[in-house]
Amino acid sequence: MKKDIGDSISNKVYEYRVLARLSQQELANQVGVSKQTIFVMEKGNYVPTLLLAYRISAFFNVDVNEIFSYVKGND
């Protein structure tokens, strides 16, 4: 059984989306996912795939580390 060590990924998708004056649906269309995916990602309830993280960062023309951050959990 896998041990849950509590690591997570935080993101600034909401901040970047609002600054770009995009709806969740508009961003979803641009990166090829559903509006629901953007919604749960912004709420911190979904960790995107590496591919999706890169699509989002490329769309906003910033480094992936500007939007997504690794948060180390408890060992």
UniProtKB/TrEMBL annotation:
One Pfam family here: HTH_3
Matching Gene3D superfamilies: lambda repressor-like DNA-binding domains (1.10.260.40)
Keywords for the protein's UniProt record, in alphabetical order: DNA-binding
Signal peptide: none
Residue ranges of domain HTH cro/C1-type in the record: 13-67
PANTHER family: DNA-BIDING PHAGE PROTEIN, TRACRIPTIONAL REGULATORY PROTEIN-RELATED-RELATED
Protein name: Cro/Cl family transcriptional regulator
